[in-house]
Amino acid sequence: MKKQLTLLFLLLLSTATAVMAQSRGIKIGYIDMEYILDKVPAYAEAKNQLDQKAEKWKQEIETKKNDIAKLKEALKTERVLLTKELIEEREEEIAFQEKELIDYQQKRFGPNGDLVVQKATLVKPIQDQVFNAVQDLAEARKFDYVFDKSSDITILFAAKKHDLSDRVISVLTRAERRQQMSKKQIKEEEEKERKEDMIADNPEMSERQKQMEERKAARLKLIEEKKQAAEDRKKAADEKRKQQLEEKNNKKTGTVSDTAKTTTADKPSATDKKEEDKAKVEETKAAREEAKNKSLEERKKQIEDRKKAADEKRKQQLEAREAAKKAKDSIRTSKP
After folding, report:
1. Both 37 and 182 in a single domain?
2. How far apart are CA 179 and CA 197, in angstroms?
3. Most C-beta atoms within 10 A of its C-beta, which of 220, 221, 255, 315?
């Protein structure tokens, strides 16, 4: 019956295709649902949990099998010692345990068992997302038919360029990413997606884009190498200029003899020169600071001396005026 339905579907499809082919070209794509589900993180995580449950159920079944095997082995060993009634009782117990085991296997792994039901419950929401993504993709890209490669429909050949599975995964991943983005980030992401879709629709554009990226990377590498070479040359020139200044300063201060200059082994190291120059700079700086402080002290003393002399002079003037005033008053009082 299933084959007949498949053949009928293919016959109707071929008839519809022939009719549409007369008016325009037909665009057909396909997906691989199993491949898509394996790439969806939510499904992979839930499937892992379900696999753990199934493993636990298998262990329980294995334990029950071992218990039944022990009962059978015990009955086989003790059969000659048991009465007919006890033997029948043991056999009934074993049969009951075996029936329970079969029922448990059907409950967990049967056609309508927990594994199948939970897997269907797990897959359905993700399948709905996939179907919605396929529908949106088919409408946007104007596909006439999109098949599921993993379904019962027989596809004898399918070119890779018509496989939309990765595009569907991309759509699902984008939707998940956008939930954590701002409006600006969503706009940038949409522009990026638009370019990716254009490249995906046109393989030649993808190749050109790849070549452009390679040329751009080569240009950036060349610029970086030139920049590094210029920095190395500048560094070498700075080192040479610094060395010449150090030699000139050492020659002025007489810290390096002419023999030491001509003998490489007797030359002071660059570190020693730096330390010596640093010490000289510190010494000069200290001397200048000391001279400056001394000059400030002397100036301060001069100001204080001038102030003191001015105060003394003013005091003498006041005393002289007071004496003159007293003398004048004395003359006035002495007249008849």
Report:
1. yes
2. 21
3. 255
Q: What is the pLDDT of residue 260?
A: 45
Instruction: Assess whether 103 and 142 both reside in one domain.
Output: yes
Q: Identify whether the C-beta of residue 148 lies closer than 8 Å to the C-beta of residue 28.
A: no
Q: Do 167 and 238 reside in the same domain of the chain? A: no
- Spatial separation of the C-alpha atoms in residues 140 and 138, rounded to whole Å: 6
Q: How many structural domains is the chain composed of? A: 3
> How far is the C-alpha of 136 from the C-alpha of 151, rounded, in Å?
20
Q: Which domain holds residue 223?
A: 202-255
Q: Are residues 293 and 223 in the same domain?
A: no
Rounded Cα distance between 126 and 34, Å, is 11
CA 152 to chain centre: 41
Q: Which residue, chain included where needed, has tokens 């075996």?
A: 98
Write the Ramachandran bin of 142: left for phi over 0, alpha for psi from -120 to 50, otherwise beta. left
Read off φ and ψ for residue 147, nearest 5 degrees: -105, 160
Q: Does residue 179 lie within any of the structural domains?
A: yes
Task: Mark whether 196 and 206 lie in a shared domain.
Answer: no
User: Both 48 and 196 in a single domain?
Assistant: yes
Tens digit of pLDDT for each residue in 36-69?
Answer: 888 888 788 888 889 999 999 999 999 999 999 9
Q: Read off the DSSP letter of residue 1.
A: -
CB 168 within 8 A of CB 134: yes
Residues 164 and 178 in one domain: yes
Per-residue pLDDT tens digits for 104-146: 999 999 999 999 998 888 888 888 888 888 888 888 888 888 8
Q: Please, what is the average pLDDT of the chain?
A: 77
**Token digits for 144?**
């006439």
Calpha distance 159→154 (Å, rounded): 14
Residue 218 has pLDDT above 80, yes or no: yes
pTM of the model: 0.43
Q: Which residue has the tokens 């649902």?
A: 33
Q: Are residues 249 and 311 in the same domain?
A: no
Q: Which residue(s) pair with 29 in the sheet?
A: 146
